[in-house]
Structures are given as structure tokens and as C-alpha cells.
Amino acid sequence: MRGVALALSVLALTARVAAASSDDFSYVAEAAPLLQAGAAIVDARPVAVWRERSLKGARCLPPAEFLGPHRRLAAIPDILWVLGAAGLTGEETVLVVGDEPTARDFVAGLLHLAGQRRVAVLRVPVSQGLGLPPGSLAPGTTRGMVREKAFQAPVREDLWLLRRELAARLARGSSSMLLDGRTESEFWGETVRAARGGHLPGAESLPASTLRAALGRNEKIGPLPSEAVAYAHDVVEGIAFYTLLRAGLGVSVRLYPGGWAEWAADGGLSADAATYGHAYESQAERVLLYFIYGGFAGAMIAGLLAVVSAKALHGKRP
Fold first, then answer.
1. Confidence band (pLDDT; 50, 70, 90) for 136?
2. What is the distance of C-alpha 219 from the center of its chain?
3. Which residues lie closer than 8 Å to 123 by C-beta, 6 or more apart?
4. CB–CB of 11/219 below 8 Å?
5. What is the pLDDT, as a whole number, of residue 169?
6. Is residue 82 a contact partner of residue 61, using CB atoms and an 8 Å limit?
7. How far apart are CA 190 and CA 192, in angstroms?
8. Integer Cα distance of 199 and 260 in angstroms
9. Which residues contact 53 (CB under 8 A, 6 or more apart)?
10. What is the pTM of this model?
11. Are strands 197-199 and 141-142 parallel, antiparallel or unpaired?
């Protein structure tokens, strides 16, 4: 398969899946032990779903709580305010549940990056009921309109890698492995969702969908790098990919949150396998097409008017 060099080695069946990769951030298969230990519950599903049924006592924080227009990530102070409004201080053990993996892992990863002491991610869709007694299930509740507590945990700043820092590291020839969590067709520029297609210089393709499918089948996964920098299309998919790698597979990974969408928008940054989709033509191309099609349309209209005028004059003759 073209362009999945690292993914092929990842599925080489040479090491067991690390279901629980670290004490502070991990995937878990069962909710009951954490619920009995008094873990705080965060439900990442949409409002219409958790209002019907969630885990008893769950605070519901779908991705939209942390995003602005066009899936722009809110500022860190605003994120911490939302977490405090959900009753979190950062010292709790939090169990994040959901149905859709990307949304669930985005919320879980954001909690971890924000400094939450321990975050556990339930791999089983919460809508399945989890085999819990009826008394453990109840409609979820939204965060408060005012901050209930102050979220005081220090942000894990060392795990964030911003665009300028990453560009500088690449210019210096950094040896850190870059892992691209998008699809193979996006990696090679065949599918374009940004200002251009392609991938960051030197990145390896490791589609998140490939990893999730392997985890779902309980396949052995490996080898994986001991440390890397992860990114995907944008901040939502990037943080979800970060969670999959760090909590699900135990990779000591840092995150470039802007992802390919941010990198591709800066024409001064180099890219491998660069392509340009029709939806993102250059300004010069758009101007040229405007004159070409505009001139053609103008000629057609002029011709039609001439025909109409001729017929009108012909009709007036005695």
C-alpha cells in the first residue's frame, strides 16, 4: 500500500496493544472500577444524546464547548474557565465517555493537555449501557453558567508545539519523528481539505483510522517510536490523534495543534507532495478565470440581445 510506511510497520504484529499506557492518561475498558473510586465523569456526546441518558452525575462537555467559528480552539484561559464551570479543579480523576471516538478523544486530550491530573478514556461506547445497574444511569447535566470551582492545575505546556517552534525545529533538522494522522489520500495530496494538499516535510503517514481499527480488533501493534510529534487536519482531529497515540498506545508524543490546515495556509512553509485543489486556486487563477468566463458570458449575452433586436426590428417592418 502506497504511503503508509509507518502504518505497515505498526501493524506488523510485533508488540501487544498498550491499553493502559500511563497512570495519568490511559484508555480503559471498564467504567465500574473508576466509578466506585469516585471518578468525575465527563460525557463528550451531543446535548440531544446525553439529555436522554448518561452516567449518573456526568457533566457533559461536547467539543463545541471549547471551539469557536470554523473549529477554532478557544484561548487557554477560556478553556480553563469552562472546566471550572463544569466543577473541575484539575486534581480529580476524570473518566471521559462518549460514542464517537474523535469527539471523545478530543475532549479527553484537551483535559490532559490543560493539566488534569488523571484522565481515563472509556473505549466502550457509553450508549451500550456498559453493563451497569439502572441506578448508575441518568440524564447528564450541563456545566454551570458561572464558574463553580477554579481549575488550578498547571497547563502541560511542554506537550504543545506551536507552528513557529515546529518550523524552527524542522529548519534545524530536528530528529523527532512527525506522525500524520490523516488519511493516506490526504497525506499524498489526492484529497485536499486545506489551502493545499500534501504533508509536513519528513512526516510519516499513520492514519488514525488504521490504528483505531487495529485496536478494535485487539491486534498486536508495533513497533512505535518512543517519542514523536503528532498532527492531523486541524486541532480537533489533532488532539484526538494525540489521545489515541498517548493514551491508547503509550507513545510519548507532543502535539502540533494547528495541524495541516494551519501549516498549508502559510505559503512560506515548505511541504512534501504539495498539490492544489480546484477549490483553492490562487488569486491570479481566479482573476484569469473571471475574465475568461466573464468575457464568454458577455459575448453570449450580446449575441442574444442582437438576435432579439433583429427580430424586433423585423417585426416592425410593413
1. low
2. 24
3. 19, 27, 28, 29, 215
4. yes
5. 93
6. yes
7. 6
8. 7
9. 127, 137, 138, 139
10. 0.81
11. unpaired
Residue 110 CA: distances (Å) to CA of 156, 186, 189, 261, 304: 10, 24, 28, 19, 60
Residue with cell 473508576: 34
SS3 152: coil
Distance CA 266, CA 269 (A): 6
160-280 under CATH 3.40.250.10, yes or no: yes
Cα Rg of the chain (Å, integer): 25
Q: Is the pLDDT of residue 137 over 70?
A: no
66-118: pLDDT as tens digits = 999 999 999 999 999 999 999 999 999 999 999 999 999 999 999 999 999 99
Tell me, what DSSP letter sits at residue 44?
-
Amino acid 307: pLDDT: 56
Q: Which CATH superfamily is domain 31-157 in?
A: Rhodanese-like domain (3.40.250.10)
Confidence band, pLDDT 50/70/90 cuts, at residue 22: low
> Distance between CA 25 and CA 42 in Å, rounded?
14
Beta carbons of 235 and 73 less than 8 angstroms apart: yes
H helix runs in the chain, sequence order? 5-10, 32-36, 47-50, 76-85, 101-114, 163-171, 184-187, 208-216, 235-243, 249, 259-265, 283-316
> What pLDDT, on the 0 to 100 scale, is given for residue 57?
82
